[in-house]
Predict the 3D structure of the following.
Amino acid sequence: MALRCSTCRAPWRGVTTCARCGSDLAAPMHVATRAWELREAARTALCAGGPAAETLALARAACRLHATPRAQRLLALTLLEAGQTAEACALIERLLADTPEEPAG
């Protein structure tokens, strides 16, 4: 999911000021960075077999900040790890419904 200016929706070009409208993008960049840090911590904890509740809390926090498709897939994995299969299945079904089908061929 590409980041965009919250004011004019121009694609983010890796700078703190939007090239199109001049909006300050420092705050959204900080939020996206924090969400990435939380996803990394959740992935690390999941791979290390850390406490399921802590891993799930990290994944949920990341999704609250920036619910990218990858963040939602990570959340689904942590839900499964935590034994919350009904919520994981519902999330997986939503993710599958939102995924465009590949062309046959």
